UniProtKB/TrEMBL annotation:
Keywords: Histidine metabolism, Lyase
Gene3D superfamilies: Fumarase/aspartase (Central domain), Fumarase/aspartase (N-terminal domain)
Family the entry assigns: Belongs to the PAL/histidase family.
Gene: hutH
Subcellular location: Cytoplasm
Pathway entry: Amino-acid degradation; L-histidine degradation into L-glutamate; N-formimidoyl-L-glutamate from L-histidine: step 1/3
Catalytic activity: L-histidine = trans-urocanate + NH4(+)
Name of the featured protein: Histidine ammonia-lyase
InterPro entries: Aromatic_Lyase (IPR001106), Fumarase/histidase_N (IPR024083), HutH (IPR005921), L-Aspartase-like (IPR008948), Phe/His_NH3-lyase_AS (IPR022313)
PANTHER family per the UniProt record, alphabetical: HISTIDINE AMMONIA-LYASE (PTHR10362)
Keyword Lyase attributed: yes
EC number: 4.3.1.3
Source organism per UniProt: Dermacoccus barathri
Superkingdom as given in the UniProt entry: Bacteria
Amino acid sequence: MTSAAQPTGSVTVGVGPPTIDDVVAVARHGATIELSADSVAEVAKSRAIIDALASDTIPHYGISTGFGALANTSIPPEKRQKLQRSLVASHAAGSGEPVEREIVRALMLLRISTLATGRTGIRPETLDAYIAMLNAGITPLVREYGSLGCSGDLAPLAHCALALMGDGEVATADGDVVHAADALKAAGIEPVVLQEKEGLALINGTDGMLGTLCLAIADLRMLLSTADVAAGLSVEGLLGTDDVFADDLQKLRPHPGQAKSAANLRKVLDASGIRDSHRDPHACTRVQDAYSLRCSPQVIGAARDTLDYVTTVAERELAAAVDNPVVTLDGRVESNGNFHGAPVAYALDFLAIVIADVASMSERRTDRFLDRSRNNGLPPFLADDPGTDSGLMIAQYTAAGIVSELKRLANPASADSIPSSAMQEDHVSMGWAGARKLRRSVDGLTRVLAIELLTATRGIQMRAPLTPGPVGAAVIETLDGRGRPGPDRYLSPEIESVVARVADGDVLAAATRAAGDFN
């Protein structure tokens, strides 16, 4: 998934939390990052505290002890470099296919952001090397399985820390998979030898699931507006009414997302010759449209409100300094439970639920176009020669199959937990699993909306000589012949082409050019 906006330049970390747009800029569009001067001083200050504790006779977790269930094991000074390296190497235990480059870049940025707060006790030179690795486009290979979402995304972050140490596999900026030591050498970066506490600082965080959430939020901001466009074109092509989207009716149930979606639908149907053709109540005998048409602002609007809540969660987490133990503002080093991924895990699951419902309603509108008993005078399956031609019959099958999978993906990962680390970590969030399935959910919604747009624009064109409104005309032009009526043809490339136009924001951009900004 890519967004329409193309942020460039650099992002400064250590001066307030990064924004969702910052995450998108670095992860998806290759923006570099810089460290603020205030952050440099704060990192050095907290590291001095860790160095002092390293020589203390009292054990301190992660500084002079083992980890997890081995927290009561004291580690002598001569073994502590080995301790940190062993922690990272043993926790880099991922399995499966490598995850997407933008997800890894997002989690690297977010770990750097936490390190830059000065709350983790990282050494300045370690932080500088991490920033240099990200800016050089070196992307550690993070495997799909390995994180339980508590203590944060241990395995994904450990793969990144391992690369920083010059071990493991990475992808270069050109996409070549090489050994980390070779990539660091080519970029002029010296591999890091970790000191006390640094292994924990590099792997204790919710950064993988949070990075995925931020990218999903950016995608859904665009996709939910595109869903309004698709719904409006379906209402237009099925000879539905826009009367139900009137502002005064929406105010009777004052959910903000519903009001925004209804306003978008009014824009889509404005100045439509097709809509104007059946405004006469004496000539049009239909009293009410089906729910999938009439109630689309209520469903897409509720998804918008959920997205707003999830955005609040993400912004709070972006402002967090997640590590264990953590260096407090007054200089204490304290164990805590802030690494637990529950807040982010719930948000990831919420979005998967609303995506499934928005897509389900979209597929119902697609199906309505293809049924001659419900499409108000269009040929069955929008076929050119019904019987000889199948039209868009099987495109609906594709959408239905995706929707069925989206319903399975809506089953919350966060409802599960499985104990680990000899029952020391006896409740986990499963947030990484929620992140991985949300990624697939966003892709599925994109495809279902594309099939609705393909269907709606064909239906609209089959209403000729009646003409669509400016939005419908602009979307038809942007699809560049995809969805045009005519004899059956190889359909998969057309679907994939429309999917790309939805994912890139081209469809929403076309609607915006025709009618102004959409909510």
